[in-house]
Write a structure and sequence with these properties.
The protein is α/β, with parallel strands linked by helices and about 350 residues long. About 35% of the residues lie in helices and about 25% in strands.
C-alpha cells in the first residue's frame, strides 16, 4: 500500500513510525503548507515526494490512501477532497468540528465505497479490548453503571513543555484556532473508551463545561483562551446503564491518565491505559461475593494502523470508523448545548 501523509506536525511522526513497521506499506509522499516542517519530516522518515498543497499531491495521485494529520478544522475540507479523488482516508480525531460536517464525511465515504477510519488511539490499549471482550461475553452480566475519567496536567505543570509559550499548546486553548477545548481534544477519547468497553452508546447527556482564567485578559498574543479546560458529564446509555465521565487539563500529578470502571449485575471491571498494555482488574463470579479483585492477563492487540491497512487491502472499512466518530461527535455537540441550556439532552 502506498501512503501519503497530510500534515507533518508532531503527530505525523507517530503515524510514519507506526505505518513503517507494517509489511508492504510505503510512505511515498508528505504534504504540508509549511515547507520547513515538511522538509524536516520527509528527511527524517525518508519520504521522497513532497508537496506544499493537497491539490498538487492529488494531481500527482500515485498513492492509495492518506493519513490525514492536519489540525482539527482542516479535517473536513481536506478529507472531502481526498474522497473525491478516490483515495482511502485514515483521519486523526475529532473527525470534524461538528456533527453535520462529520456526517457529510461519513456518508460520502460510505457511498463511495472507500475506507474511512479514525485514529481513536486508545483502541490500541489491550486492557480496553479485553474489557470489551469480557462484557460482550456476559461475564459481568447486565451493565448498570459506568465511571470514566481522562486526567491531564499540562495546564498545571510543565511536564510536556511551557503551554503559555508554545504554539502546539496554545492553539488547543483557542476556538479561533479551531479547538473544541478539552471536550473535543480528549473528550472524544474518554467517551469512546467508556462506551466501546461497555458495548453500548450514549443515549442522553447532561454536561458542565468550565473555562478557567489562565492569563491577563484571557489572551496570549493572537490566542484568545476561551475554550473549556474541564468538563463533567452525567450520561445515560442505550443498554439502560447510567454513568459519569469527566476530564481536565488541570489534574496535577497526572500526565495522561485514562481510567474506567464498569459495574454489572454479575461483576465489575476496572481498567487504565497505564504502561504498554494498560491494566485490567475484574471481580466476577465468586470473587464478587467476597469481594476480591483479580489482575487479568493482557497481550498486545492489533493497532488502528494495522486495521486500516488491512481494511484498505480488503476494501472494507473496519473500526474505529468515520461512522463511529460521527456518533461520538453528536454527543460532543449536545454537550455544548447542554452546558449552555443546563438541561439533559437526548442523543
Amino acid at each position: 500500500m502506498r501512503l501519503l501523509i497530510l500534515g507533518t506536525g508532531g503527530m505525523a511522526s507517530s503515524h510514519a513510525t507506526a505505518f513503517a513497521t507494517i509489511p508492504d506499506v510505503e510512505i511515498v509522499g508528505g504534504v504540508d503548507t509549511n515547507a520547513e516542517r515538511l522538509k524536516t519530516f520527509c528527511d527524517t522518515h525518508r519520504v521522497e515526494h513532497r508537496f506544499t498543497s493537497l491539490a498538487d499531491a492529488l494531481k500527482w495521485g500515485d498513492f492509495h490512501a492518506v493519513a490525514n494529520v492536519t489540525p482539527d478544522p482542516a479535517h473536513h475540507p481536506t478529507t472531502m477532497q481526498i474522497l473525491a479523488a478516490g483515495k482511502h482516508v485514515f483521519c486523526e480525531k475529532p473527525l470534524a468540528t461538528n456533527h453535520v460536517l462529520a456526517l457529510e464525511m461519513t456518508e460520502t465515504a460510505e457511498k463511495s465505497g472507500l475506507v474511512g477510519m479514525v485514529n481513536l488511539t486508545y483502541r490500541n490499549v489491550a486492557s480496553l479490548q479485553k474489557a470489551r471482550e469480557m462484557v460482550v461475553a456476559g461475564l459481568i452480566g447486565d451493565v448498570k453503571h459506568i465511571e470514566a475519567s481522562y486526567l491531564q496536567s499540562w495546564l498545571a505543570q510543565p511536564a510536556w513543555g511551557a503551554w503559555d509559550k508554545e504554539q502546539q499548546w496554545l492553539w488547543r486553548l483557542s476556538s479561533k484556532h479551531g479547538s473544541l477545548g478539552t471536550l473535543g481534544d480528549i473528550g472524544i477519547h474518554v467517551l469512546d473508551f467508556a462506551s466501546y468497553a461497555a458495548n453500548t452508546n450514549v443515549s442522553d447527556v447532561y454536561c458542565r463545561l468550565k473555562t478557567f482564567h489562565k492569563a491577563p485578559g484571557d489572551r496570549i498574543g493572537e490566542y484568545v483562551l476561551d475554550v473549556n479546560d474541564s468538563f463533567a458529564m452525567s450520561l445515560g446509555f442505550d443498554n439502560g446503564a447510567v454513568g459519569v465521565v469527566h476530564a481536565t487539563r488541570f489534574a496535577s500529578g497526572h500526565f495522561n491518565d485514562l481510567s474506567l470502571r464498569i459495574y454489572g449485575s454479575k461483576g465489575g471491571l476496572e481498567l487504565t491505559n497505564a504502561g504498554d498494555l494498560g491494566t485490567l482488574k475484574a471481580s466476577v463470579g465468586d470473587d464478587m461475593l467476597k469481594p476480591v479483585w483479580q489482575d487479568i492477563a493482557l497481550a498486545p492487540v492489533i493497532t488502528n494502523y494495522q486495521r486500516f491497512v488491512t481494511a484498505v487491502r480488503k476494501g472494507k472499512t473496519d473500526e474505529p470508523s468515520f461512522r463511529r466518530a460521527t456518533t461520538i461527535q453528536r454527543v460532543l455537540d449536545l454537550s455544548v448545548q447542554s452546558d449552555a441550556q443546563q438541561v439533559a439532552l437526548k442523543v
